[in-house]
Structure to design on (492 residues):
């Protein structure tokens, strides 16, 4: 029987393990000293302790992951998302050790991970935003003057929003250039940067791709425009903005880009969309956090297809087999202060997720579990599906209101506000959504009470001039006015 090592943790490890067991594959796992009580271990037939607490001591340590695979006699490794999932060196080591990497080939991973080279190839078949790689501040200034401000600085070999900075003038560019360079070096081991014209307030839309040695298919697009600091918070499919004609053009373009690169396995082609035009942005060479909404509307298990492709069995589906039905929305529930979005690890006293038709919750939480401080703050993905967008939104609103997580604050209340925001309801929102969003809670509702009972008693840092978070600006007065009648005040 085939054995797969899941080189990840938390909800994505559980999600991969479920598919493995369903198709008759034994899932094996790894964990850190901080994850000895993690639920994902129980979904694996066996697991190896990688030791340590920080990611570079365990989940990012190639040698330890490979040793674990050998110890457990695993044939394949699934990296999930994050950690080593887009590390071309890891792909190469897997091949050298005779272990099948469930993802793109070394060549495709290396190419897709280099934003500069990917842009060059994609520009043959798609429109791209003007820009180029820059080596130093002087060159960056010359390029910026040529294409015009504002510009955005990006890590050439990075992703996940790290290293990104927007400069509106030469002075800002000079100040931000070294910050991006240093962050890129720390995060990705490379300080290569490139500069491009900043497209203000676009929509962020991605196309899900599956490709093997013989064919390439798409599973439609996902709307990912609701973000904070370039981190996605809410996703939905299909996009409420795209026309049928634009959707067809975008998905066909995505397939052309994938074929030009020679990409294989699962990945997404990312686009910026504004004023009826879309621009290629980058390729994400892994399974995405938001993949469940695509699975719910297409009925395709993306992890299963990844395994088939990596096993050289190839895709078991054709484009004509894929007929998306309905609408799906995902809310990323994070262990964070719902207003400041500051990470907030701690012990879970109560965890009662919503259940019912059209509801999916991917999580590794349980009552009594202590969220470690060393990893991402994502604790659950709430997915709601409906026959239409309105039904999906209505189901999401009810699910959020019934979701019970106590012991730590979460972003559930933020999502409730988002689901009731007029701009979201209209579907016309873009990446500036969070800056314009208005807080919401039912009259005398429990949600508002839950928010404030969990806030720190000292909030001067929010009111200080140094604090620039757009979600908070203008919110304090709203809350004071809204709850004045209940004798509620900010605690000082």
């Amino acid at each position: 029987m085939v054995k797969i090592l899941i080189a990840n943790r938390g909800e994505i490890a559980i999600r991969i393990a479920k598919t493995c067991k369903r198709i008759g594959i034994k899932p094996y796992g790894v964990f850190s000293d901080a994850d000895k009580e993690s639920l994902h271990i129980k979904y694996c037939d066996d697991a190896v302790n990688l030791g340590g607490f920080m990611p570079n001591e365990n989940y990012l340590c190639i040698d330890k992951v490979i040793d674990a695979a050998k110890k457990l006699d695993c044939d394949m490794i699934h990296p999930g998302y994050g950690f080593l999932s887009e590390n071309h060196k890891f792909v190469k080591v897997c091949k050298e050790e005779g272990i099948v990497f469930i993802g793109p080939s070394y060549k495709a991973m290396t190419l897709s991970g280099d934003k500069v080279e990917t842009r060059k190839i994609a520009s043959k078949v798609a429109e791209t935003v003007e820009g180029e790689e820059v080596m130093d501040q002087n060159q960056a200034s010359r390029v910026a003057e040529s294409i015009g401000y504002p510009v955005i600085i990006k890590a050439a070999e990075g992703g996940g929003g790290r290293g990104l900075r927007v400069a509106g003038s030469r002075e800002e560019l000079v100040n931000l250039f070294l910050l991006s360079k240093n962050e890129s070096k720390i995060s990705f081991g490379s300080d290569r940067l490139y500069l491009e014209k900043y497209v203000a307030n676009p929509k962020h839309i991605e196309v899900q791709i599956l490709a093997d040695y013989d064919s390439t298919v798409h599973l439609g697009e996902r709307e990912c425009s609701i973000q904070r600091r370039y981190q996605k918070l809410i996703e939905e499919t299909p996009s409420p903005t795209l026309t049928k004609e634009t959707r067809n053009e975008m998905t066909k373009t995505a397939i052309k880009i994938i074929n030009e690169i020679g990409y294989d396995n699962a990945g997404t082609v990312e686009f910026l969309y504004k004023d009826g035009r879309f621009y290629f942005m980058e390729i994400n060479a892994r399974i995405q956090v938001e993949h469940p909404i695509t699975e719910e509307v297409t009925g395709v298990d993306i992890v299963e297809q990844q395994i088939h492709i990596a096993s050289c069995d190839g895709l078991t589906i054709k484009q004509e087999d894929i007929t998306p039905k309905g609408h799906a929305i995902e809310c990323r529930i994070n262990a964070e202060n719902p207003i400041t979005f500051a990470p907030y690890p701690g012990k879970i006293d109560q965890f009662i997720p919503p259940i019912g038709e059209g509801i999916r919750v991917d999580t590794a939480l349980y009552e009594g579990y202590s969220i470690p401080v060393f990893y991402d703050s994502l604790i659950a993905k709430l997915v709601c599906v409906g026959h239409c967008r309105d039904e999906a939104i209505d189901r999401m609103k009810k699910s959020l209101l019934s979701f019970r997580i106590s012991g730590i604050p979460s972003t559930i209340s933020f999502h409730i506000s988002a689901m009731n925001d007029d701009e979201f309801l209209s579907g016309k929102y873009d990446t500036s959504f969070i800056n314009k969003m208005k807080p919401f809670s039912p009259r005398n509702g429990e949600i508002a009470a839950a928010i404030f009972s969990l806030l720190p008693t000292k909030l001067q840092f929010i009111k200080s001039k140094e604090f620039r978070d757009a979600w908070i600006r203008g919110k304090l007065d709203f809350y004071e006015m809204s709850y004045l009648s209940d004798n509620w005040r900010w605690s000082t």
User: Anything to note?
Assistant: The two ends are 62 Å apart (CA to CA). DSSP finds 17 helices and 19 strands in the chain. The domain at 203-435 is CATH 3.30.470.20 (D-amino Acid Aminotransferase; Chain A, domain 1). The chain has three domains: 3-102, 130-197, 203-435.
